[in-house]
Amino acid sequence: xxxxxxxxxxxxxxxxxxxxxxxxxxxxxxxxxxxxxxxxxxxxxxxxxxxxxxxxxxxxxxxxxxxxxxxxxxxxxxxxxxxxxxxxxxxxxxxxxxxxxxxxxxxxxxxxxxxxxxxxxxxxxxxxxxxxxxxxxxxxxxxxxxxxxxxxxxxxxxxxxxxxxxxxxxxxxxxxxxxxxxxxxxx
Length: 187
Description:
three-stranded antiparallel β-sheet; mainly alpha
């Protein structure tokens, strides 16, 4: 069991955080209505991030095309008629919460975690922007691809990226460096 301990802890944290979120956070998947945590309205950060993601993706898409329109607070629409609404679930706040839980239970020094947890959040943020940007560009001419990209391909790549980030933590950063004098071959 010892060689798999870290992977088991990762999976338990991922699943535990995911199901805790599913059981305690409620909101309309299509963005209509408040985001609630134990019946408390926590919509403000989700609304802010949905607007931010929409504006950022609109700006990025504007670098290569002029066919995308932004309708505040969170709708992107192409001249082709394809559109998408950036809702609370597109903010990566859930993935940031899951990352925090994973790192709190991961092996390693707390001082290193103090910089690696925010580093992970930055990676999650950037990957999320890239994910929404890719979906946005593809649906301009292929709106039928939205479901498979959003619900399957890019969702699993997102969690794969988080796993690789955790592997980097576990294998390269959390492990103490062996000193040369402790190696019997160097004695």
